[in-house]
Amino acid sequence: MSSYTAKPEDKFTFGLWTVNNPGRDPFGGPTRHVLPIPYVVEKLGQLGVWGVNLHDNDLVPIDATAAERDAIVKEFKQALSDNNVIVPMATTNLFSDPAFKDGAFTSADARVRAYALQKTMESMDLGAELGAKIYVFWGGREGSEVDAGSKTMDALGHFRDSLNFLCEYSKDQGYDYKFALEPKPNEPRADIYLPTVGSALGFIATLDNPEMVGVNPEVAHETIAGLSFPHAVAQALDAGKLFHIDLNDQKIGRFDQDLRFGAENLKMCFHLVKLLLDNTYSGPKHFDAHALRTEDEAGVWAFAKGCIRTYLILEEKVRQYNADPEIQAALSEYFVRDAALEGLSKKYSPANAAALKAMPVDRLALGARGMGLEKIDQLTVELLYGIR
Fold first, then answer.
1. What predicted TM-score, i.e. pTM, was given to this entire model?
2. What are phi and psi of 384, to 5 degrees?
3. Catalytic residue list contains 58
4. pLDDT of amino acid 336
5. CA of 175: how far to CAs of 143, 304, 353, in Å?
6. SS3 365
7. Cα–Cα distance for residue pair 275/318, rounded to 1 Å
8. pLDDT in the model for residue 1
9. Where are the beta strands (DSSP E) in the chain?
10. Is 208 a residue of the active site?
């Protein structure tokens, strides 16, 4: 029986903004204190966490002087070293400051767009100094409440120009960043540009350096849209674009809850972990969630530990699933293999097309065949309930 404790090879990460979330929401102020960052790093290190991620202003206040910035970064680096924690990913806060109230890279104001580039380059410098190799772009204000300004086409063009600019900046500085777009359909704006993984993948193909840019899908974001998160992740994996992943949980149709991983949709989380494990995903596994507003500091660390334990429990369940003889026998019946037919349909040739057109088909038998999915799904549920 596993102890369900994290090891560095698990590559579990938390953001400074996750465990340091003070419990504020639109209808109420903080319910707990913000913790000193070196202390946060120490506590995460004690949990066996591999990495800590950050927005620029999670660490350095937006109005800090150069001397203040250097002192903060020095202290943070020491905490990382003391606790064997690294910074795998960095990002920019382009959503909190009022300057970005109508977008950053997609603002209708050229001055705001220029400031967004300046702030991002400085944040990339910080991330590189801390050792980050992945840079995430969440366009929290890149959208609209009303379309009266008719800026959508301009906005997409500005977004593209900004990413092209920053890719070149990364190459020029020798940072070797992998960029990851984080889709979200809404909140804090009514409609956010590039709302889903599919739309982000389509947009990436239009960039000057598409090989540098992938996606950072998040459980809550696709779930808000009523979509299947495992399907979105599979699409990213299939495209070779899963550069980073945000793990949490979410009720469909609610505000962005950022619940503890596995807190709500246990079967979905199982299928997600299975997808990542079976396809040997080796990147960071980032818990982009936070403790409930009801919790004190003890609840924060219970939340963080819970994310880790649930992921590792589900990995164990995946291994059980893959070794369960009854489940595997049912899957063997579900997947009908035919090497000859698969060879014909794998790649087009005139001969393959002619053979397929001449192939006899018992359409009625195909339609009458039961697939056995009820049995497979029930066996999966029983495994998750712990009775197999």
1. 0.96
2. -70, -30
3. yes
4. 97
5. 29, 31, 48
6. helix
7. 9
8. 53
9. 12-15, 51-55, 89-91, 134-138, 143-144, 178-182, 191-192, 213-215, 246-247, 285-287
10. no
